[in-house]
Amino acid sequence: MEPTPNGLYGAPPPENPSTNGDYRPRPTTPDNITVVKSGVVQTKDEMARREENSWDPVVRVYNRRWVMLLLFCLVSMSNAFQWIQYSVVSNVVKDFYDVSQMAVDWFSMVYMLTYIPLILPGTWLLDHSGLRLIGVLAASLNCAGAWLKYTGARPDLFPVAMGGQAVAAVAQVFILGMPAHVAATWFGAEQVSTACAIGVFGNQFGVAIGFVIPPLIVKPHEDDEVVEKGMKTMFLITALVTTFLLILILLFYKERPPRPPSRAQLEGQREKEGKSFLDSIWALTTNFNFVLLLISYGINVGSYYAIGTLLNQIVLSEYPDAEVEVGIIGLTLVLSGIMGSVVTGLWLDKTRIYRGTCITVYILSLTGMALFTGSMSLNQLWIVGAVAAFLGFFMTGYLPLGFEFAAELTYPESEGTSSGLLNASAQAFGIPFTILVGMVISNQGALYGNLILTGSLFIGSIITACIKADLRRQRAERNESTVEDSKEAETPDNPNRGITEEPAVVTKDERKHEAEYDKLNNDGSETGGENSGSSGHPNESCVELDDEEDE
User: Fold this and answer.
1) 3-state secondary structure 17-31
2) What are the residues whose beta carbons fall under 8 Å from the beta carbon of 218, sequence distance 6 or more?
3) Which DSSP letter does residue 528 get?
4) DSSP-based three-state secondary structure for 494
5) Which distant-in-sequence residues (6+ apart) come within 8 Å of 482 by Cβ?
6) Phi, psi (5° rounding) for residue 491?
7) What's the CA gap between 407 and 417, in Å, rounded?
């Protein structure tokens, strides 16, 4: 019997009508073979598992993921509330403690200053200790800071109050970088962006409450005892809430699910095995696209921090005695930002368009800042509030977008590390922005201070446009590998034009089959047609090997 064109003795396997006669002989049962257009050879079982997005039996999502996300959001919310609660009533705090305006601004800036030196050890701890330890540390420090601030609510205890704020600021180190990490650890690929957005939502909702509640409880008064009573009431409520959250974290917060929720998470865990923290930092800082995102994200969020810290001064410089209205404008800014965060998260899960969304949101943030600057001179607070809603929707909506874009650009590095560096960049820009704009507002007026932030966002928009969409996590999720298509022309001797020489995905089992196939093929070539009638011809050996592998 003459060998077939494929080198095997006996009749060739039947053609698959769906591939127009194109097939590649594999050492598997013909009925269990599927050849796809890209040249990937897979069994029908593999195809079915991939279509169900559960190709690997160790990948699974759990209902408890929503409990983990809720607990994180509540702790993040309480910590964000503590960040802004002094700044929104800065004029009252200044008179109560008899300190300068800059000293009051440091109640906010201590959050930024503390984050920068502690982010690397905090991220290292997150990567090596897991979510539970970080959650317990964050909730504990958050609770301790709240009780210290309650103790320091007296005119002669300004250092104690600042110390309590510093302790809460350390808790923030473990909180700000966690949304992307919690989302990737507990949520599947189709929900990870939405989960990250919800995680950011918790922090922003805390800021929103921080803009509204303090002006309602702590009001300007000539009698320090009245102001002290209001401050103690506010800080006692904060301390009791944070204590309750600490108990919930100790009882219910888990480190990770029993099985990873997505293929990208599973592969990321495998690829990070044996890689040191410094290797990860080096990989991030040498990733040009990530460095560009680091700068643009820092400018955007640093501007947002400056606006949040200085909103009381910005508005009161044009509209005196409008403390309550400042809280409402701040609430509007943040609530619209929460909507923006959720919308961008849902949009990313639906479209996976990262670069285009980043550029669009950034340009609209710039537009909102320019409109906010112009609205301050119109003598209509409702217009300022409406423009603040537009600004907040896009500026805050950029927060989860930056986290998720960074996770895509830096995969398989830890989401906690990339988001931690993004937050460090935001703090690094936020401190000089707050100091500079605060000085300009005091000396020149709010208009010039807002123009500085507008110009900074213009530069950030240009940088954002230079980022390339290198979406590594999506490629890992699809397990795609780029191969060059065959360029051979179709001839009578070569009917398989366009089929790649090697499959795009080659597993260990396939390599084993290839070796067995080559061995059998070589044996057939040496013996010619003498073995064609024997019971152990190559096809039979291949089928037996497949059966053993299946078992």
Assistant:
1) HHHCCCCCCCCCCHH
2) 89, 92, 93, 227, 230, 231, 234
3) G
4) strand
5) 504
6) -135, 165
7) 9
H/E run at residue 376 = none
Residue 332 and residue 385 in contact, taking contact as beta carbons nearer than 8 Å: yes
User: Reduced to 3 states, what is the DSSP secondary structure of residue 414?
Assistant: coil
Q: If you search the block for the tokens 């966002």, which residue do you land on?
A: 457
pLDDT given at position 268? 58
Helices (runs of H) and strands (runs of E) counted in the chain: 20, 2
d(CA 180, CA 305): 20
Query: How far is Cα 5 from Cα 521, in angstroms, rounded to an integer?
Result: 12
Can you tell me the distance from the alpha carbon of 496 to that of 517, in angstroms, rounded to the nearest whole number?
Answer: 20
pLDDT digits (tens, 9 = 90+) for 225-262: 888 899 999 999 999 999 999 999 999 888 777 777 76
The span from the CA of 307 to the CA of 40, in Å, is: 53
* Measured distance CA(33)–CA(499) in Å, rounded: 16
Provide the sign of the torsion angle of the four alpha carbons 52, 405, 466, 464, taken in this order. positive
In a 13 Å sphere around the CA of 282, the CA atoms on its Cβ side amount to 5
Sign of the CA dihedral with 107 first, then 295, 478, and 276 last: negative
Could you read off the pLDDT of 88-118 as tens digits, one per residue?
A: 888 889 889 989 888 888 898 898 888 888 8
Question: Quick one: tokens of 143?
Answer: 């609770």
3-state secondary structure labels for all residues of 27-66:
CCCHHHEEECCCCCEEEHHHHHHHHCCCCCCCCCCCCCHH
Please name the residue that has the structure tokens 């930024």. 112
Please spell the DSSP secondary structure of 123-186, one letter per residue: HHHHHHH-HHHHHHHHHHHHHHHHHHHHHT-STT-HHHHHHHHHHHHHHHHHHTTHHHHHHHHH
The pLDDT of residue 481:
39
Quick one: which of 211, 216, 228, 229 has its CA closest to 86?
A: 211
Read off the pLDDT band of 197 (50, 70, 90). Answer: confident
Higher-pLDDT residue of 340, 4: 340
Which of 109-118, 372-381, 470-479, 528-537 is predicted least confidently? 528-537
Looking at per-residue confidence, does 438 or 130 come out higher? 438
Q: Is the dihedral of CA 252, 253, 255, 258 positive or negative?
A: positive
Q: Give the C-alpha separation, 33 to 19, whole Å.
A: 12
Tokens 């609660």 found at: 85
Report the run of H or E that residue 483 belongs to, with start and end. none
CA distance 260 to 269: 9
Q: Which two tokens stand for residue 444?
A: 């020149």
Query: CA-based angle 71:77:81, to the nearest 5?
Result: 155
